[in-house]
């Protein structure tokens, strides 16, 4: 009796497998199914192509807008327009790609209402659970929009000072002069000092012996400063001798100021010190300090 039931079960399995193969074959050779697949494929290709075209057109439009801003007589900061243009382009690209994915999924019969509803609930939960992340993103947006600083600027925020290597929507990367890279969440950037927006001022103190002929020393100093100004691309305005800064029993200090390109005052000071030392020594005026 048991062997008879096993035999019947085996026949049913064979019959079921044969039915499955026959159904699959009928489905594959049915012209209506091939037509349906072809229509879906064409729709997917069209949706993808249109999405790529929209992305390309919007990026060109944003690039054209940035170029027009740079040529505008209002003199918009090119760093700001390029950064905002890149941000707008990425935002538009993300939105277009999202809708392309949604439309492609709909062609395969996915019910998108539960997916969108679940994404909304998930986004709300993430918003409550990741408030610091949201704060970082919002702060990053305003850093870019308000042009507080840009890539390549030298800034200081808190205890960190260095060159900005990257401004992301969540973090900012700063490399200091010794090579360390600081990754700072944008939400922690509450106060920024930007050393790259405007020209800097180089201050040089020239100390000479008290017995030195002051008029001769000033004349040599002016000639040397003019020579430095003519040969240096860091100094944008001819240096000026402000006058006698300090007098003691053994020395006199002359103060010099020079307007330099942003964040180049240290290099300019070193260059002026070197040339002034050479000039004073060549003319028999000993430079002290």
TrEMBL record:
Its main location: membrane. GO terms for molecular function: mechanosensitive monoatomic ion channel activity. The keyword Membrane applies. May play a role in resistance to osmotic downshock. This is Mechanosensitive ion channel family protein. Belongs to the MscS (TC 1.A.23) family. SUPFAM superfamilies: Mechanosensitive channel protein MscS (YggB), C-terminal domain (SSF82689), Mechanosensitive channel protein MscS (YggB), transmembrane region (SSF82861), Sm-like ribonucleoproteins (SSF50182). The lineage of its organism: Bacteria, Bacillati, Bacillota, Bacilli, Bacillales. Residues 204-285 form the Mechanosensitive ion channel MscS C-terminal domain. It comes from Paenibacillus ginsengarvi. GO terms for cellular component: plasma membrane.
